[in-house]
Each structure stands twice: as C-alpha cells, then as structure tokens.
Amino acid sequence: xxxxxxNHAYIAFxxxxxxxxxxVAEQTAGVDEIQLSFTLSAxxxxxxxxxxxxxxxxxxxxxxxxxxxxxxxxxxRFWILHQPGNTAAAxxxxxxxFHFVGELVLSEGRVCAIELFEDxxxxxxxxxxxxxxxxxxxx
Length: 139
Prior knowledge:
The protein is of the alpha+beta class and 139 residues long. It has helices spanning 61-72, 87-95, 121-130, and strands at 7-14, 17-25, 28-31, 36-39, 44-52, 77-80, 102-107, 110-116. It has two domains: 3-98, Aminopeptidase (3-Layer(aba) Sandwich), CATH 3.40.630; 100-139, no CATH class. Helix content is 22%, strand content 37%. A hairpin with a 2-residue loop joins β1 and β2 (17-25). The longest helix is centred in the middle third of the chain and has 12 residues, at 61-72.
C-alpha cells in the first residue's frame, strides 16, 4: 500500500548488514495515530517511519542516514516529524541539519493545531502544509 501511494523506502547498511530503514513520501503523507494527513507540494518530501535496529542505536547512524537521503532526493524542501518525548530522535534530526519550526498540539489523541517556534517562512510553510491553525504560544 505504501508504494501505491507514492512512497519509497531506503535501507541503511553498514558493510552488508542492514541497520536502519525509513520512508520518503512524494505525494500524500500523514500520521494515522493522530489523524493527520496532508498533501505535499511538488519537490517537497516527507521523511517518515524511520527505525534504527536496536543493536545499532547510539552510533550516529540516523543523522547520517537522513543526510544521505536528502542528498539523493531531488527535492527543494524536506519535512520530518518525531514522536513527542523522543529526545533521541529530536537530537538526531537536528544533528542531520533539520530546523524545528513548531510543535503539534494534540487534543484527545488528535492533532488540532500547531504551535510555531518562530514566525519565519519555514514555520508558516509548515502550518500551511499541515493545514493547521496556529496556536498561541503559552507563556
């Protein structure tokens, strides 16, 4: 089903051993667990469902894997989300060169808004991509 919806997989290897995998969406994307779906503009990619196998975690594979995919894909902009509280993923995503622009606001297990960390073009584009209202930052 993933391939039929314009997704393709990447597998990371160390020598000849598979150590991680991840998916790239080119058309539509989403996160079923929080009932979020969106359509990607041309030359945008969404990186999702990444997993580094347990024996290989903590070796810096994930950020290098993301950088490799970014270099190989013919895209102008990449989007990536991580599960709230997954600080290891957040650190790796940032180490790969991604910039966090906001945080999803959940209510009753569903995404209902986005809280932007800045008001720059990337943040506004992220809110528009996800078609979410912008939540006022709590003080």
